[in-house]
């Protein structure tokens, strides 16, 4: 059984939690919703939008279909949020590498911290791109899936702090163990 530090356990749990929450918001068609009063006035209107899906109300029936919005902000938001999911997975991969190759622990944890920073940045900029789509924001209001995706960044932020603590501990232990080893002197034969 692996002997994981408290910092590492918390970091992994936070990244997994953030990834799951982010992914739920990422795939949900509830980034924007149209206010009910406006949807009721039209016999056919889009009532919900997500990054990948638009749900259209036709009479009493709502059909959701895959769509590709032509605005560059929508494409940027999709790309950045997709990168966020990839960075979540890469940070989990870096934890696995850390456990498999502890000799390189300091470097691997540094890479993990970089992935965590990239998660936060790509999620925030992707959300900003989505919010700046003025034609969408005039008719629709932001909904729970958008909030879930944006709010999920709190988990990697906290995980990043624990990873930095783990890295500091690793470096201190590594320095301590290198100081405790006796110096090997070379014997020169003439």
From TrEMBL:
GO cellular component: membrane
Record has Signal as a keyword: no
Annotated InterPro entries: Claudin_CS
Entries under PROSITE patterns matching the protein: CLAUDIN (PS01346)
Name recorded for this polypeptide: Uncharacterized protein
Topology in membrane: Multi-pass membrane protein
Compartment(s) where it occurs, according to its Swiss-Prot or TrEMBL record: Membrane
Residue stretches spanning the membrane: 12-31, 82-99, 108-133, 139-163
